[in-house]
Prior knowledge:
single chain; 34% helix; alpha/beta; two-stranded antiparallel sheet; 10 strands; 5 helices; Rossmann fold
Amino acid sequence: MERYKIISFLQNIAQTKRNYMTDMIHIIATGGTFDKKYDEIEGALTFKTSHLPEIMKIVRCTLKYKLTFLPLKDSLFMDDSDRSMILQACRESTAKRIIIIHGTDTMEITGRYIGSTDLKKTIILTGAMVPYSVSSSDAVFNLGTAIGYVEEKPLGVYISMNGRCFDWDNVHKNKEKGVFEKPGREGRSPS
């Protein structure tokens, strides 16, 4: 009888671990304005490390999450090999809910790249128009909004910016206004 208790106990531990891995949110940092920092010597915005560990500590997130750091890169310099690396990280993740921190300039391209693969996960791409290291940054707001959406949205790929969430195939960045919106909304205020 004791043997069956031990086996049952080990099975419960294994199931708890599986539940933990699938119930958590996997946040993947790829760079973009979100993680840039002003380098006083270079006089430019550069990447040193991701701000995500600091942000998650400050906001006291009580959800289970895992952080992964891919090479931090300006999205203007991303190519399909970078997108393939991001897609692979999503495929290999045991989490069913994933947030990708990404640069806004090519976020739509990466959204299409991942969205066309039909992964059975909820994936939200988000970023920032102003770096986290700058006082007027939208980084924390966009991350918090993405966390809310990844908890509620059905399976699929989305872009969450400016308090809104869009399907991967029905969004574009309005560079004049500095916001994401549905295509064909130029000249209208965001709703």
